[in-house]
Amino acid sequence: MEDGRRAMLASRAATVPAVVDEFSDRFRHTRVRRVLLAAGAAIFVAWWAWPVLTDRDDLVLAAGDPVLAASERAIATHVRDRGQRFLAAPSTVVSCDHAAVRAEVDRLDARRVVLAATVDGCDLSPLVAELRRAHRTVVVLVAPGLGEDAAPPGARLVDAGSIVGAEPIRTERPCEWWDEEFARPCGDDGVAVLRDDLGEITPRGIDRIGRAIAARLG
User: Are residue 49 and residue 84 in the same domain, yes or no?
Assistant: First the structure.
């Protein structure tokens, strides 16, 4: 009986190194996973915060045009993807209030400015010329129906009418690859509805406008 007990103790003792090795392997793998997760999180945070930390590539949106105001979120998303920082100007700062726009640009030291050319708007040429002399990049969103001629010299043009249709009627365009980013992708017919039956610009149309503005900002 004593021999049996000794044999059992010896057997248990022999398994201790194996158990220790297995525990060490599991601990090492867990630690590696934690290190990789922490590194990935750090990289993501650094990418997201970089424009804010470096104060790089500010963007002022001079709201006042309904299409431009509706595009704020889409613009913010797409310029952020490009490593730029989006700042919406106060709602009281509209494109035709040249003095207010200049003051906001100077206050924020914005390097890129988005303005709106509207049907009942004003001549943006003096403001654009002044901003360009100050080495600012200027993008002008032209309201549907105005056409490319409404953009002042020196500005980069985004013609909303060419994107979502100039007339307030149902407008469809072929689907693009980025349409899959929406919760509801394009239909089986491969068509993206940019204006609904009432002629209102759809969220998909607004996203395309915001994406075009971000691309023109460079």
Answer: no
Q: How many domains does the chain have?
A: 2
Q: What is the pTM of this model?
A: 0.72
Phi and psi angles of residue 143, each rounded to the nearest 5 degrees, phi first: -65, 150
Domain assignment present for residue 21? The answer is yes
pLDDT in tens, 29-65: 566 556 556 555 555 444 445 454 444 455 777 766 7
Residues 59 and 11 in one domain: no
Residue found under tokens 């249709």: 165
The pLDDT value given to residue 139: 95
Q: Is 142 helix (H, G, I), strand (E, B) or coil?
A: strand
Domain extent at residue 17: 1-54
118 backbone dihedrals φ, ψ, rounded to 5°: -115, 170
- Residue 111: partners with Cβ closer than 8 Å, 6 or more residues away: 57, 58, 59, 135, 136, 137
CB 145 within 8 A of CB 160: no
Beta carbons of 37 and 71 less than 8 angstroms apart = no
The domain that holds 85 is classified in CATH as 3.40.50.2300
Greater pLDDT, 3 or 208: 208
